[in-house]
């Protein structure tokens, strides 16, 4: 499930490029890629690992496609939700995809934005859970509740049993939603509760049957949308009009909380693998390695006489002096400084920025596109400067602008340029000018990335001033 917005990790996470597509828990892989990679070792012991199913939305489709391709996932199904309807309809779409060919596989249902530090422990727990789910049970992974946490749901289960060294799946007695701090403290003290990880393991048919039992309205509306689906460019698109009528509900509210005491056997398998939902900056601090003073750093940072502090720097040197329990997040266009205990309040800051129609909550300065990326280096009255990278063999759309002209200067690689009725090559240190209202296109015909500097000038420089005539990626 990869459709969330991740607003509490602003300014690193933006609604147009949220946390599941970022490297947060460890450099080198995004959270989506980490989630997929940790499942690769499960195709053993007589099980066949099917290609993944990723449920996301139109905005993130090319981010998902690119990140799957970089992992070598060529046969994944990418389902695009026509509208945000929470996790129960998302899981239903995945289950309908899973049974499409007449099989009934066990599904490992994972949010794409969680972190895990102990991969062998995670994979062992999943094997136990899959074996239980193969017998028809609904299984949820529960994380040991080591502190009172008001940001998580809780699971109360029966006492443990099973062979020495391996706990048998425990029968779930109750799901409890996010408690207040005093109630959370009593849960932790009792030893009866685990945090709800949001990771579920069950057969596709079991989910569909449970949804039919507890929320037949969600099932019927989602099935109608699935029946009206179309496939194009590697994406599966459920029917838009039909999906508009799907009720919005979470997996927990729709089904899981109703299972204890019902005909559906529901079990919990404890997950002790350094799990975190990375839902806010204090959780990111918890998940990272700390120095002797409790500080966690990513990027170019120097800390002096500071403790229990998180610094995440992306583009420049950050120095922190004499601070305690602080979070500092630096990006090229925004900086966040706050007390770690205020991590949940970041969403309120984002709401205020959205109310003021600010651009910072939507996109970072460096914006990824299916053909590559652009970085808005500088801007002012009637001008904007962008650094643009085009992947080998990729092409921007054939387009024109009503309100701006553009200068292109090739920094590296070779550009194939369409400008009006002319087509020509530009090499390194060569440039061209596109007049306002002139049709144009930029293509990288080479085998190495193409980089150019684009200087825009005009009375309006917004991204919505684009008229597309032809596009490889179906955006006309």
TrEMBL record:
Domain of life the protein comes from: Bacteria
Reaction catalyzed: alpha-D-mannose 1-phosphate + GTP + H(+) = GDP-alpha-D-mannose + diphosphate
CDD domains tied to this protein: cupin_PMI_typeII_C, GDP-M1P_Guanylyltransferase
Residues annotated as domain MannoseP isomerase/GMP-like beta-helix: 301-353
InterPro entries noted in UniProt: GMPP_N (IPR049577), Man1P_GuaTrfase/Man6P_Isoase (IPR006375), Man6P_isomerase-2_C (IPR001538), ManC/GMP-like_b-helix (IPR054566), Mannose-6P_isomerase_type2 (IPR051161), NTP_transferase_dom (IPR005835), Nucleotide-diphossugar_trans (IPR029044), RmlC-like_jellyroll (IPR014710)
Keywords: GTP-binding, Isomerase, Nucleotide-binding, Nucleotidyltransferase, Transferase
Domain Mannose-6-phosphate isomerase type II C-terminal: 364-471
GO molecular function, one term: isomerase activity
Family to which the UniProt record says this protein belongs: Belongs to the mannose-6-phosphate isomerase type 2 family.
One Pfam family it belongs to: MannoseP_isomer
Name assigned to this protein: mannose-1-phosphate guanylyltransferase
Residue ranges of domain Nucleotidyl transferase in the record: 1-291
Single GO biological process annotation from the record: polysaccharide biosynthetic process
Gene3D superfamilies per the UniProt record, alphabetical: Jelly Rolls (2.60.120.10), Spore Coat Polysaccharide Biosynthesis Protein SpsA, Chain A (3.90.550.10)
Record carries keyword Isomerase: yes
């Amino acid at each position: 499930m990869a459709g969330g917005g991740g607003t509490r990790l602003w300014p690193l996470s933006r609604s147009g490029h949220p946390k599941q597509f970022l490297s947060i828990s460890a450099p080198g892989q995004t959270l989506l890629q980490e989630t997929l990679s940790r499942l690769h070792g499960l195709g053993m012991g007589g099980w066949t690992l099917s290609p993944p199913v990723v449920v996301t939305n139109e905005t993130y489709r090319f981010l998902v496609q690119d990140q799957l391709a970089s992992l070598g996932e060529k046969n994944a199904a990418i389902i695009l939700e026509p509208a945000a309807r929470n996790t129960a309809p998302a899981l239903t779409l995945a289950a309908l995809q899973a049974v499409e060919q007449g099989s009934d596989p066990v599904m490992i249902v994972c949010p794409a934005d969680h972190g895990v530090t102990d991969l062998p422990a995670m994979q062992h727990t999943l094997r136990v859970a899959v074996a239980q789910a193969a017998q028809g049970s609904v299984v949820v992974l529960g994380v040991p509740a080591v502190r009172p946490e008001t940001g998580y749901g809780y699971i109360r289960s029966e006492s443990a049993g099973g062979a020495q060294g391996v706990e048998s799946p425990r029968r779930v007695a109750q799901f409890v939603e996010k408690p207040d701090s005093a109630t959370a403290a009593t849960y932790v003290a009792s030893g009866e509760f685990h945090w709800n990880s949001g990771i579920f393991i069950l057969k596709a048919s079991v989910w569909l049957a449970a949804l039919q039992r507890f929320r037949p309205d969600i099932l019927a509306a989602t099935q109608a949308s699935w029946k009206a689906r179309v496939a194009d460019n590697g994406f599966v698109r459920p029917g838009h009009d039909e999906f508009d009528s799907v009720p919005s509900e979470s997996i927990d509210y729709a089904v899981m909380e109703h299972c204890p005491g019902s005909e559906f056997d529901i079990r919990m398998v404890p997950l002790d693998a350094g799990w975190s939902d990375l839902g806010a900056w204090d959780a990111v601090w918890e998940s990272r390695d700390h120095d002797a003073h409790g500080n966690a750093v990513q990027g170019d940072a120097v800390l002096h006489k500071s403790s229990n502090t998180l610094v995440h720097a992306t583009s420049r040197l950050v120095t922190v002096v004499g601070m305690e329990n602080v979070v500092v997040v630096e990006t090229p266009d925004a900086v966040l400084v706050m007390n770690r205990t205020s991590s949940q309040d970041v969403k309120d800051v984002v709401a205020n920025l959205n109310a003021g129609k600010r651009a910072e909550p939507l996109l970072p300065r460096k914006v990824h596109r299916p053909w590559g990326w652009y970085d808005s280096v500088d801007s002012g009255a009637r001008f904007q400067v962008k650094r643009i990278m085009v992947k080998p063999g990729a092409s921007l759309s054939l387009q024109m602008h009503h309100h701006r002209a553009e200068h292109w200067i090739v920094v590296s690689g070779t550009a194939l340029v369409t400008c009006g009725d002319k087509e020509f090559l530009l090499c390194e240190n060569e440039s061209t000018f596109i007049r306002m209202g002139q049709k144009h296109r930029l293509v990288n015909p080479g085998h190495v990335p193409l980089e150019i500097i684009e200087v825009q000038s005009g009375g309006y420089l917004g991204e919505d001033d684009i008229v597309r005539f032809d596009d490889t990626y179906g955006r006309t």
